[in-house]
Amino acid sequence: MHRIGIQAGSDKVYWALSTIEGLAAWWTADTSGVAAVGKTIVFQFRDPNGKIIGEFEMEVLKQEPFKKCVYA
Fold first, then answer.
1. Residue 13 placed within a domain
2. Alpha-carbon dihedral of residues 15, 71, 2, 31, nearest 10 degrees?
3. Strand partners, 6
4. Is residue 7 part of a domain?
5. How many CB atoms lie within 10 A of CB 9?
6. CA dihedral angle for residue 8, residue 12, residue 15, residue 20, rounded to 10 degrees
7. Number of Cβ within a 10 Å radius of residue 30
8. Is residue 39 part of a domain?
9. By residue range, what is the domain housing residue 38?
10. pLDDT digits 0-9 by tens, 46-72
11. Considering the domain boundaries, does residue 63 fall inside one?
């Protein structure tokens, strides 16, 4: 579990955790894929020169609007 304290409504939090645009806005700009149950999201991290220094994928397991997002 990863816990982050924020001050925002559930609609904004859910958007930030359940969409490619939302995830890219706060985690890594190099986020791609499809944010739908059964699909995969790819996260890439780059050094200041643009070279990829890390990458991983997560499958979207569950999305309950305004309640929960589960990835593996």
1. no
2. -60
3. none
4. no
5. 9
6. -70
7. 15
8. yes
9. 30-72
10. 999 999 999 999 999 999 999 999 999
11. yes
